[in-house]
Amino acid sequence: MPDNQERFKMLLRQKGLKVTTQRILILETLENRPDEHLTAEEIYECVKQENPDIGLATVYRTIQLLSELNLIDKLNLGDGYVRYEIGHHGDDATIHHHHHLICLDCGNVFTFQDDMLETLETRIQDSMDFKIVDHEVKLYGYCRECQKKNQGE
After folding, report:
1. Closest by Cα among 56, 42, 45, 51 to 24
2. Which terminal CB of the chain, N or C, has fewer other CB atoms within 10 Å?
């Protein structure tokens, strides 16, 4: 954990932010749960275990700030909640994007990584003179478990 803390401290300083326990705890919470896509309330519950004095309003303000600075990513996965995950940590154009598979039956969200859109982005940039800075892919369908369950019916 000390390596992550030092990395997060450096990121906060690079963004011109004061290093606070709350900011570090929120970043660590998301870093340690990369596939969970937590809501603000879920982040609060996790952080409260480490820092019982933290308030929900502090968590909301901190999440908003970290999101605005691209240290964490805000997600809308179609379930009515705003969710968060650890950000890309930088403006590096070579960062590998990850995408989301959303099961329409159980609601589970799975992440997958693929460079499938990089070629398309390059073609669009070249043919349309349109500079793409980000993209998001959400694919909806049925997970393996729900497919098995539904075949048995």
Report:
1. 51
2. C
**Short-list 94, 76, 93, 96, CA closest to 84:** 76
Residue 5 to residue 46: CA distance in whole angstroms: 17
d(CA 132, CA 115): 14
Contact of 138 with 77, CB cutoff 8 Å = yes
Residues linked to residue 86 through DSSP beta bridges, in sequence order: 72
Contact 64, 40 (CB under 8 A): no
Q: Around Cβ 134, how many Cβ atoms within 10 Å?
A: 10
Specify which residues 38 forms β-bridges with. 84
